[in-house]
Amino acid sequence: MQPTSRKYLWVLGATGYVGKHVVFELLERFKDDPSTQIVAVGHQSIHEEIMERTHFLMIPLGEIGQKWLDKYPPSVVFHCARMAGSTDRKRFSAGRKGERANRRLKGLLEALPHPVKLVYCSGTLMYGNHTSAVLEGTEERPIAYARAYERAERPWKEDSLKMDIRIAYPAWIFGPESWFEAFYLRPFKATGAVAQIGAGDALMNLVHVRDVAGQLLHVALHGEPGERYNLYGGEAVRQGDFAEAVASTLGGEVRVMSEKELVNHYGKTIAEALTSSIPLGTKHGDWKARYSLKFPDWRTMVEDVVANYLRNS
């Protein structure tokens, strides 16, 4: 049986963009609780502080072995690991490999003598385009990257008699080193302009990466077994209004980019993601109200991330 004196919280993808913030959120939350320890599983990169402050394992997702589950029996697993690809063909291949790895891992976790709670970090591109607020449980119609990656998520979206699996759907994750830097800040540095996509009418919800981490923990601590949760900040904003705010913060101008130009520059998959319209709501109003956002205002997020980028560029 699992020892009652010590609790292990696992983070898969612990050195990735979301995963490392989950690790830091857990370290901060449980810093005064020596009986709760963090097992950080990374693969493609390392992070010095995470290595020093956790039980750090450098293992590919598909090779997590029984010996580590026995040594550090998990009570909660935060799954932020995704096999990725740089082209559509490579993404579909990664999705197939991810499905095999996740089925294998699910089998190992279900075979443990104690029940495991798993919080899986998906994404709202799984919902597809909508004009009104999307609630949890809406039929999934994956678009853009999600078309390839949904296959890897299938094992966790299937029923389990032994595990409590909770699925989280973050909105546009905002922060340093994100899509915002790649598609807004770097192009601005090169051209002095911020792109508005077409008429700018697509609706987007934003959430700071630190609030993704915080809400993933909130799902684990205060969510309900087997439920799904949308993770977002405030109300949805028009892409055009967002572009104007970014340009104002940077002291630049807005340039309208047609969808055809977007496709020519970035390719169909990225263009489909950038033009997606997925406003979010939630069925879990009480649960959401109990979480205090670190960045409740999207304009404040823009100012914070832009200032950080300018300091380091």
CATH structural fold name of one domain: Rossmann fold
* Count of discrete alpha- or pi-helical segments spanning 4 or more residues: 12
Read across the widest sheet, the strand sequence of neighbours is: 3-2-1-4-5-6-11
| Corresponding CATH superfamily of one domain | NAD(P)-binding Rossmann-like Domain
Output the radius of gyration. Answer: 20 Å
Question: What is the rounded distance between the termini?
Answer: 51 Å
Structural class estimated from helices and strands: alpha/beta
Give the helices and strands as they follow along the chain: EHEHEHEHEHEEHEEEHEEHEHHHH
Residues in β-strands, percent: 15-25%
Task: Give the overall average pLDDT.
Answer: 95
CATH architecture of one domain: 3-Layer(aba) Sandwich
How would you sum up the major sheet? 7 strands, parallel
Low-confidence stretches: none
What does this structure look like?
The chain has helices spanning 19-29, 48-53, 66-71, 88-110, 146-157, 179-191, 209-222, 239-250, 259-266, 268-274, 285-289, 298-312; strands at 7-12, 36-42, 55-58, 74-79, 117-121, 164-170, 172-174, 193-197, 203-204, 206-208, 228-231, 237-238, 253-257. It has 313 residues and is an alpha/beta fold. The chain has a domain at 7-169 and 209-232: 3-Layer(aba) Sandwich (Rossmann fold), CATH 3.40.50.720. β5 (117-121), α5 (146-157) and β6 (164-170) form a beta-alpha-beta unit. The longest helix is centred in the first third of the chain and has 23 residues, at 88-110. It is globular and about 60 Å long. The mean pLDDT is 95.
